[in-house]
Specification:
alpha/beta; Carbamate kinase; 37% helix; globular; binds aspartic acid; binds magnesium ion
Length: 423
């Protein structure tokens, strides 16, 4: 069998009937190799499911939100399929089991597990619709439940992959199908040893594509995006951007670490380990080349700007008038590790430690609870973290305008600031 190719389509590329038709055209033209298509939930439907969970947790009525979620998918199907098509009964089956699940008790204790059980419906439903549409368009393809392949631990909402088990499952389940059919499967979801649904973290479908590619030793992964490739800044935020023709694995990984949302941060490593090229290209202009991420010996000097929203700046001040020392840092980091909170930026002074973290439900409260006895803790929410790699003075000055800057850090290569926009 020739090398497997993995394609990944995110929510924006399958947000409506026209997008799904476009996806099918893209696939149809590129079926030379055995192919796996990884698809996310359609449009903003993961957010919609999160909103439902949020309402339910606060004991609000969710019926109209459920209705909107169902109607969104049904409207798309009415544009793609004849009214008697079997996709409608399959969808109704999914809607029914989702509604049943949402009648169960949800509370702070079971939230993460319940979240994964609920949120996976976005991906399950989108792949059911798209598999049906591809078949209707004459592409022989098989629907695969990703949970049968992606084995994880039980850290709900941010599960860790069991690589050995996953490799074994991918080889036994996927390889035989790939000999004569394209496979379509869900991004972002997996299964723990007890058979419970897990997820890999928001926007984790890129990572799924990379996991499958690694386990099957694929020839190439393509992520289809609404941008022409990897750019040096988000075109939704900046007017002048440059597209990279190619980028080194390390460089791309660093940009994702700072929050570049073009690729999920965990995507690069498995591919780099096996030297599998990652191509980021536009589903709007599928014949354009995009960006290829692989081994590039020379380092890039173009300034890259990454803006990450929903940031919280937390500062810990020691209560007993001692200076900040290693044991304070150790103590804080131990709690951060326990809560699975990643520090996006760290700054220490004589009497305080400041960290910047992503906003995540319940986490800040828990962090404060655990450390309140030893530190006076203050925090600011709704902030942005801006990172400029390969900065020069002019770019930094320009970027600092109209912002209330709360913290700044500068090294030879990298400039970072935490700010609140001045409206
Ligand atoms: N649907 C999930 C999310 O929106 C996974 C993904 O899109 O990659 O986070
Ligand atoms: Mg998504």
């Amino acid at each position: 069998m020739s090398k497997v190719i993995v394609f990944k389509f995110g929510g924006a590329s399958v947000k409506d009937a026209d997008s799904i038709k476009n996806l099918s055209k893209i696939i149809f033209k590129r079926l030379q190799n055995p192919t796996i298509i990884v698809v996310s939930a359609m449009g903003k439907s993961t957010n919609a499911l999160e909103a439902i969970l949020d309402l339910k947790l606060r004991k609000n009525d969710i019926s109209s939100n459920i209705h909107i979620f169902q109607k969104y998918h049904l409207d798309i199907c009415h544009q793609l399929f004849p009214s008697q098509h079997r996709v409608f009964s399959e969808l109704n089956g999914q809607f029914l089991s989702l509604s049943k699940l949402l009648e169960e008790e949800l509370n702070v204790e079971n939230y993460d597990e319940f979240y994964d059980r609920t949120i996976c419906y976005g991906e399950l439903i989108s792949t059911i619709i798209i598999q049906s549409y591809l078949m209707l368009s004459g592409i022989r393809c098989s629907w695969q439940d990703a949970r049968e392949c992606i084995a994880t631990n039980s850290d709900f909402r941010l599960a860790t992959v069991d690589w050995e088990q996953t490799t074994q499952q991918c080889n036994t389940i996927l390889k035989p199908i790939l000999t004569d059919q394209t496979i379509i499967t869900q991004g972002f979801i997996g299964r723990d040893p007890q058979g419970k649904t897990t997820t890999l973290g928001r926007e984790g479908s890129d990572f799924t594509a990379s996991i499958l590619a690694f386990c099957l030793e694929a020839g190439e992964v393509t992520i289809w995006k609404d941008v022409p490739g990897v750019l040096n800044a988000d075109p939704k935020l900046f007017d002048k951007t440059t597209k990279f023709e190619e980028l080194d694995y390390r460089e791309a990984a660093e940009l994702t670490y700072y929050g570049a949302s073009v690729i999920h941060p965990k995507t690069i490593k498995p591919l780099a380990n096996l030297n599998i090229p990652l191509i980021v290209r536009s589903f709007l202009e599928p014949d354009e080349k995009g960006t290829i991420i692989h081994n590039v010996p020379k380092t890039n000097q173009t300034p890259c700007i990454v803006v990450k929203g929903n940031q919280i700046l937390v500062s810990f001040r020691v209560n007993d008038f001692t200076f900040i020392n290693e044991s304070h840092i150790h103590q804080i980091y131990a709690v951060l590790e326990k809560l699975k909170l990643k520090v996006n930026l760290l700054q220490t002074s004589a009497i305080s430690i400041s960290i910047v973290i992503d906003e995540q439900i319940f986490k800040l409260e828990k962090l404060v609870q655990e450390l309140a006895a030893d530190f006076t803790i203050r925090y600011n929410e709704k902030l942005f973290l801006l990172t400029v790699k390969n900065h020069h003075e002019a770019s930094v000055k320009e970027l600092s305008a109209n912002k209330e800057i709360m913290l700044e850090q500068i090294t030879r290569n990298t400039f970072q600031m935490v700010y609140k926009p001045i409206l």
